[in-house]
Design a protein that fits this description.
The chain is built from eight helices and no strands. With 272 residues, it is mainly α. It is globular, with a radius of gyration of 22 Å.
Length: 272
């Protein structure tokens, strides 16, 4: 992909034009370490707790990531206890995730090409006057996420109440495909929305906050998944996840409607 980091681009332009590069004075090791910690640890955590966009995007992406790990543990257990699947057959049940993932990325590519890119070209045509610094709203990234917010809880509830011995085992596998389809529809667009919102200067820090929350929840989810499914059963354990997804479903819609207001209040100004 093309380089997008502003400082790197400025350095390349200056070098190409034979201009003097603005270099920072040499720092001591202690100051360099402090600066490194500030930009890679302190800033992401600060953005996580002070920036609503970062906080809610991290909540969404962490749930999607944790959901994947939950199903890695819960799905084999469900098909073993409900349908008596062998170890090899349990592995084949993940074919639903494979199919759902393939269709999901096809939908994301289609959404980018036929919705996002079309809106972008229209915006550029309307704001092509010289000196115009108007920025294309990153909220247009959220079309697929709004769709996924409706599909994900539907897939979870479908899996919850079709994973029964009396119902053919293909049905819950289809429900898994629907679930992962909706999950990826949310995960990819909201991550891109956050990076677009904070730009090349602070986008990496926002992504760092997302990584911190994602992997923390993923690690924690493995500690309670099997106990939760054994205690509540597949129906109510997955329904609990469905209710969580349903509670978070409005987030992409809120971003699309009030995102400009939230961005205007941000402490991390995006550089054009």
């Amino acid at each position: 992909m093309r380089e997008t980091y502003r400082r790197t681009l400025q350095q390349r332009i200056a070098k190409r034009r034979g201009l003097a590069l603005n270099t920072k004075p040499n720092q001591s090791i202690s100051k360099a370490v402090i600066e490194f910690i500030r930009s890679t640890v302190v800033r992401p955590i600060h953005m996580l707790v002070t920036e609503p966009i970062v906080g809610f995007v991290c909540l969404l992406t962490s749930f999607q990531f944790g959901l994947l790990y939950i199903f890695v543990v819960a799905s084999p257990w469900t098909f073993e206890t409900t349908y008596g699947f062998s170890l090899g057959a349990q592995g084949l049940t993940f074919s639903g995730f494979i199919v759902g993932t393939m269709f999901s990325y096809a939908a994301i590519i289609a959404g980018d090409r036929f919705l996002y890119q079309r809106k972008l070209h229209q915006f550029e045509h309307e704001h092509q006057a010289p000196g115009t610094a108007t920025e294309f709203p990153p909220e247009h990234r959220l079309y697929n996420a709004m769709l996924g917010s409706l599909i994900l809880p539907s897939g979870l509830f479908m899996f919850a109440w079709t994973a029964e011995y009396a119902i053919y085992w293909v049905v819950p596998i289809v429900a898994q495909a629907i679930t992962i389809f909706g999950s990826i529809q949310i995960y990819v667009p909201v991550s891109m929305y956050m990076v677009d919102t904070y730009g090349p200067l602070y986008g990496a820090s926002a992504a760092g906050a997302s990584s911190l929350s994602r992997y923390t929840l993923s690690a924690v989810s493995l500690l309670f998944t099997l106990q939760m499914f054994k205690s509540l059963g597949t129906g109510w354990a997955t329904s609990l996840l469905g209710f969580c997804a349903l509670t978070m479903a409005p987030i992409p819609w809120v971003f699309y409607r009030w995102g400009p207001m939230l961005r205007a209040r941000s402490k991390y100004e995006r550089e054009l």
